[in-house]
Write the structure tokens for this entry.
Amino acid sequence: MVEFSSLFSGRIAEMRRSEIRELLKLTQKPEIISFAGGLPSPEAFPIDVVKEITIDVLDEKGSVALQYGTTEGLAPLRKELAKRMNKLGVKCTHENILVTHGCQQALDLISKIFLDAHDLVVCSLPSYLGGIGAFGAFQADFIGIPLESDGMNLDVLEGKLKELRKEGKRLKFIYVLPTFHNPAGVTMPAENRKRMIEILKEYDVLALEDDPYGELRYEGDHIDPLMAYDNEDGHVIYLGTFSKILAPGLRLGWAVAPTEILDSLVTAKQSTDLCTSTFSQYIAYEYLHRGLVNSHIEKIKKMYRSKRNIMLEAMETYFPEEVEWVRPEGGMFTWATAPGVDTKELVIKAIEQKVAYVHGAAFRFDGGGRDSMRLNFSYPTEEEVEEGIKRLGRVLKEEMGTS
Ligand SMILES: Cc1ncc(COP(=O)(O)O)c(C=O)c1O
């Protein structure tokens, strides 16, 4: 009998399974109200539109839509994406765009082209688990920077970069989620984005901007992506996705990067999957080209804004006074902190009371965040949001000894 474990690479031996995936298995029972996942509402999927487009694509372009495509992605889709990015202030052409199987694949490809074992990556504390997982799979060493209500703490970041420069160490990149952060819900204001770009230039480092939620704003003024402040200087790589504005099942995302980086990403992607699903790309292209995306985004925003409001009001009503939470201006998550509570242990009691969340420490690599939790409001129904927060409030009150 072959002993498989001795055959696995050092990389896979060090890899951790996503704690969220394990937790999600527990929360899939229908009686449990789950704030744990990061899923869009199924009601937000434009099923009829996709059906109509699919039939047209098969009728009119079936022979190419079912064929392999180029590794860079479908040129007309890349052109539509470039147009969209330019409207967001990011100066680019389709030659700066790579279409990927979701933003998650872009995180993997970025890791593949930049990271050798023990290379340094900066992440906010907390950060998106899938990002930490992708960089960790390539054995990155992490440097954590605290996240505040206005995003990554730039004073601490600058101090750290100064220190590294003194020590003659070079960072590979700073992973940043400036808009409607997953998991923390916070947003970096425009002036901080400007300062961040100055820091990137001063220390000659690269930022990797992950932006799945940027178009889902429920209040406040629009802020352009970090990359828009970069004036084509090449200090930012941007990642976008169709998962939250169309459907994650199509597995479509895109990376915007200087052409030199894009060329390496293409090489890396060739050995991963040759090309992104041509069929999905044609559907997404038609969705953009027919001008259907903006009205659909408005519909989703209305739905999620209402759910967010219900969650925030319910927390006000049912949570103990000591608990604090973020009021997210967009996206899919809020982040609550219950001083003195071990949220990893509490989740077991919460699941007994038929409500679930993800504990804060899951989003960190330094063991911190033990008293915090991520709450998703996009997936449950409005009634479930209200009832779930009521249940969670009871669990928290019992744990914290408050009434
Ligand atoms: C911050 C962040 N990055 C990347 C992803 C992965 O997105 P995709 O479905 O495009 O792979 C997600 C998914 O929830 C996310 O929240």
